[in-house]
Amino acid sequence: MRLQHKVIIITGSCTGIGKAIASRCVAEGARVVIHGLERELGEAIVATLGHDKAVLHIEEITADNTPQHLVDLALKSFGRLDAVVNNAAMVVSSNTQTTDLALFRQIMEVNTLAPFALIKVALPYLQQWRGCVLNIGSLNAWCGEPNLMAYSVSKGALVTLTRNLGDTLHREAGVRVNQLNPGWVLTEREIQRKHQQGLADDWYQHLPSEFAPAGRILWPDEIAAAAVYWLGDESGPVSGQIVDLEQYPFIGRNPAKN
Asked: Any idea what DSSP says for residue 94?
């Protein structure tokens, strides 16, 4: 097992990518702290994974004491902390016309500042076990799209945070920091969002080839499989890296010509 005996906090893990990462981590021998806002969903995940392998914490990721509560729960439940996965995110459609400063600040708080806050609290324990941080970003970090303006900016800032801490914390504390930037992933919430935007219930089964050359978009389990490498010892000393997970070359690609 690739994560045997490791203890991992995974934010935003009651659904979607976070849930898939938590399940894969336990399958690889880890014990996990599940976090989110959906208590019933979180309790169901813990029951499935086993109460000896998973514990649940329900709290807004931006609350002042959430980082400390998550770290304390990991230590109380499992006696150590090896890794943090910053997955919780606020995905909200917004453009220059619909984004006011209050919304922009809220998105930045959830998507960029909350990961930093958790890293700060977790750092002494990650240093003790020469652990790591894995931030979950987005391909939108590189350019964004018109109706995901604030979200894209927040993920761009997360890239810079990862590169900065991936260098400084690795040198100063022996803690690696890396980031996965998934493309379009078929999560429960993505299905719901597109339905709310007026798409048919089976929209994901009829995607144009410029967005899905494989005939489908990514699955959460595929992101989870990639996460295991960065959370385990196999990635060795590698730190400060941003890894794009998409089914086509993102840079230099012109969808109109496909």
From this structure: B
Q: How far apart are CA 61 and CA 82, in angstroms?
A: 20
Task: Identify the residue whose tokens are 């080839």.
Answer: 209
Instruction: Walk across the sheet containing 31-36 and list its strands.
Output: 54-58, 31-36, 7-10, 83-86, 132-136, 176-182, 242-245
Q: Where in the chain is the domain with CATH 3.40.50.720?
A: 7-183+220-234
Tell me the one-letter amino acid at 153. Answer: V
Contacts of residue 138, Cβ cutoff 8 Å, sequence gap at least 6: 89, 151, 152, 155, 181, 182
Return the pLDDT at 252: 62
What is the distance of C-alpha 107 from the center of its chain?
15
Amino acid identity, residue 107?
Answer: I
Active site residues: 151
Residue range 178-194: average pLDDT?
Answer: 89
